[in-house]
């Protein structure tokens, strides 16, 4: 049995590439890195990698993480600039005995020393988005923050090895140096090959308040199906945040256990995810939370066409 699940529609091409690796008895680490790099390299996705939206100083700062479920090894980078594939740097760090999480200049020095590709990650489209947002904030008094669509994945290969990984440019117009949940073990991701894995997307500041990826893996370890574990963790954190703080940010989680069974839960409208298994071709689902239960529907071709059309539409400065 093999499988791979990922947050958002943007991951489907990547998991399609990964599925070929997994079908041929390839390694879950190679498969998940290949899948995330496909998202990082596509310039029309504005929340991950090349084309990611910048911070308030118009710099693209990227976060990424990788975890090996066999060894529990973790690697992560945060607030790294000018490197093409932060997930690959994170995976390389996971092989170190210490210094597994590097930030900012330290992460960049390590990446340069290890020969990773330098690249200016700020695209012309991202510059237009930035200038338009600055104008909107000035003229309409709207909040600057928007866009926190982390790509997160969990992967199972035919040898029973599981991995989890994330990559994001974080909140649009964030403070310089801001780091969300994505590179934080237990919050943005967690995986244990003896149980399963989970990954998160949404508002990192709130996702971290529940260590929610670890919580889902813990619930699965107690025998809970991934779907039930996701729903319980998301609903409980959503309720707790609203009770304590009056509001809960976006919380969306994906999970897969070591049998290839998967689950997804969200507290927002319009969350999409992509999944492929030995018995299922790569497919995109839309999910919504109805009275605590999440209902998944296959995305229509019309929805898929509209998704790409809006993301690749020409941009003009306002």
UniProtKB/TrEMBL annotation:
GO CC term, one of those recorded: cytoplasm
Active site: 150
InterPro entries from the UniProt entry: Ntn_hydrolases_N, Peptidase_T2
GO molecular function: hydrolase activity, acting on carbon-nitrogen (but not peptide) bonds, in linear amides
A Pfam family annotated for this UniProt entry: Asparaginase_2
SUPFAM superfamilies linked: N-terminal nucleophile aminohydrolases (Ntn hydrolases)
Residues that hold substrate according to the record: 178-181, 201-204
Annotated site, Cleavage, chain positions: 149-150
CDD domains the UniProt entry points to: Glycosylasparaginase (cd04513)
PANTHER family named among the record's database cross-references: L-ASPARAGINASE (PTHR10188), N(4)-(BETA-N-ACETYLGLUCOSAMINYL)-L-ASPARAGINASE (PTHR10188:SF6)
Protein name: N(4)-(Beta-N-acetylglucosaminyl)-L-asparaginase
Source organism (scientific name): Faecalibacillus intestinalis
């Amino acid at each position: 049995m093999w499988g791979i699940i990922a947050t958002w529609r943007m991951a489907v091409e990547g998991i399609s590439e990964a599925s070929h690796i997994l079908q041929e008895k390839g390694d879950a680490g190679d498969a998940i890195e290949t899948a995330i790099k496909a998202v990082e390299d596509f310039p029309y996705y504005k929340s991950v990698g090349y084309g990611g939206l910048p911070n308030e100083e118009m710099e693209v700062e990227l976060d990424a993480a990788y975890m090996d479920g066999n060894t529990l090894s973790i690697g992560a980078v945060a607030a790294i600039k000018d490197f093409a594939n932060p997930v690959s740097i994170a995976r390389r760090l996971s092989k170190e005995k210490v210094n597994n999480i590097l930030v900012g200049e330290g992460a960049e020095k390590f990446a340069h020393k290890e020969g990773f590709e330098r690249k200016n990650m700020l695209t012309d489209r991202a510059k237009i988005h930035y200038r338009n947002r600055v104008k909107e904030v000035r003229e309409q008094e709207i909040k600057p923050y928007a866009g926190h669509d982390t790509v997160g994945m969990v992967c199972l290969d035919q040898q029973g090895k599981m991995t989890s990984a994330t990559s994001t440019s974080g909140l649009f117009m964030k403070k310089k140096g801001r780091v969300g949940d994505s590179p934080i073990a237990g919050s943005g991701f967690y995986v244990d090959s003896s149980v399963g894995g989970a990954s998160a997307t949404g508002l990192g500041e709130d996702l971290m308040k529940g260590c929610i990826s670890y919580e889902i893996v813990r619930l699965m370890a107690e025998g809970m199906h991934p779907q039930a574990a996701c729903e319980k963790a998301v609903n409980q954190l959503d309720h707790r945040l609203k009770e304590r703080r009056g509001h809960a940010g976006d919380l969306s989680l994906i999970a897969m256990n070591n049998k290839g069974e998967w689950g997804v839960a969200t507290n927002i409208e319009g969350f999409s995810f992509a999944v492929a298994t030995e018995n299922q071709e790569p497919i995109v689902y839309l999910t919504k939370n109805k009275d605590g239960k999440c209902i998944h529907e296959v995305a229509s071709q019309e929805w898929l066409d509209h998704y790409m059309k809006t993301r690749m539409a020409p941009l003009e400065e306002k």
